[in-house]
Design a protein that fits this description.
Length: 400
């Protein structure tokens, strides 16, 4: 039984009210929200869920994708990464054009619409044999090879490419623009501290926060719908999480191109440097997701990967997410290979049990597909073929 005289701390209750009313929050406000304790946490989640309903109603989306790991060689040495492989690792590999097309065709046959290209960042800068592979494929850089493969997948299968190649120059972003329906790069964190020896981003030249933010700005200048987000549990503080969310918000306010913000939790793996670190708890995720929603506002698409919290991801709906991200019926999550995707039928059941309707989307969100600035002519036919007036995938084009 709730006692009528029990209330939240007035200042916290007032802060939630201001957030729901659409007032701009400060970094100090964000830090107060993300530290919600006790009965403040369900109140925080309730406020975030209300805001999500303002922008997205009861629709929760996902993208049916095929995962194409173009190369698992990388110049980075992230302490939490199991995707990147060293030159002597027997599974180190750059996919050939035939291998790329075989995976893309398998995705097409299974009803996928998105071709997610994930790859290590600029491995040719440090590995001679990668340069040899690229020359054999007719290219000098991985970005050039990526562009060709995106173009080929788009033209020969109709799948809409979404590339995540790491930091890029303005010219590199431009080179991929016409062959990608959207692009992505996780900010992860703005913490410069994590570049110190023994920290998660030591010896990671491509994880310098300003360079990652600059790539997002280049994409904004060129009208590219962009996915980004934060990775929590890699050694950052609560304050640094808030700073990272505000950095993303500032890019979006300047260029209007951030289509999705992911809140992703670090997972321990046996073959990583950070294998002895603690993973973020479900409560940490709920606090961070809800705070991200209140900072980013009702219109932003907020996503958290369901496969990284397989026993509790339904709770994320109560904290304000409106999207599950990409789910593949064909390929595993090569970034987190120990964490299989939920079956689409299971995802539907979990979503509906919480009172929401699950809908399939493309790799470009409806509000961006509706703006000519963000739609490439090369991708327009695919967008029109698969979507209805809502911008989501038509029911008859969808398979569970």
């Amino acid at each position: 039984m709730l006692l009528s005289h029990q209330r939240l701390e007035p200042a916290f209750e007032e802060l939630l009210g201001r957030a729901i009313d659409g007032e701009r929050l400060s970094r100090a406000d964000g830090e107060r929200l993300i530290r919600a304790q006790g009965s403040e946490l369900p109140a925080l989640m309730f406020a975030a869920a209300l805001m999500r309903d303002q922008g997205h109603g009861r629709t929760v989306s996902y993208s049916r994708k095929v995962f194409i790991p173009l190369t698992n060689l990388c110049r980075q040495k992230c302490g939490y990464c199991t995707f990147a492989r060293g030159p002597k690792d027997p599974v180190a590999h750059t996919m050939s054009p035939d291998e790329v097309m075989a995976v893309a065709e398998a995705g097409r046959r299974q009803g996928c619409k998105e071709a997610l290209f994930s790859l290590g960042e600029k491995p040719e800068e440090i590995y001679d044999f990668v340069r040899d592979d690229l020359r054999r494929f007719g290219h000098d850089t991985m970005i050039s090879y990526l562009r060709e493969q995106c173009e080929r997948v788009l033209s020969e299968t109709g799948l809409l490419p979404h590339a995540n190649p790491g930091i890029m120059s303005r010219e590199e972003v431009a080179s991929l623009r016409e062959s990608n329906v959207s692009m992505g790069l996780m900010l992860e964190t703005t913490s410069e501290r994590l570049h110190g020896k023994g920290e998660a981003h030591f010896n990671c030249p491509g994880k310098i926060p300003e360079e990652r933010l600059e790539t997002m700005r280049f994409a904004g200048e060129q009208g590219i719908a962009f996915t980004t987000g934060i990775l929590i549990g890699i050694g950052e503080t609560w304050e640094e999480r808030i700073d990272s969310l505000f950095a993303i918000k500032e890019v979006h306010e300047e260029h209007g191109n951030i289509q999705e913000v992911i809140v992703q939790n670090f997972r321990v793996k046996e073959d990583i440097a950070m294998r002895h670190k603690d993973e973020p708890s479900v409560f940490e995720m709920l606090r961070t997701i809800a705070t991200a929603r209140l900072i980013m506002g009702p219109a932003m698409n907020i996503q958290a990967p369901p496969n990284l919290t397989p026993d509790a991801y339904g709770l994320y709906l109560m904290a304000g997410i409106n999207d599950w991200g990409g789910v593949s019926p064909v390929t595993r999550d090569h970034i987190n290979p120990e964490a299989p995707w939920p079956k689409l039928v299971e995802l539907k059941e979990v979503t509906e049990e919480a009172g929401f309707q699950l809908r399939e989307r493309l790799a470009i969100y409806p509000q961006f597909a509706a703006q000519d600035r963000f739609v490439r002519e090369s991708c327009r036919a695919g967008i029109d073929r698969w979507t209805d007036e809502s911008g989501l995938v038509r029911w008859e084009a969808h398979e569970w």
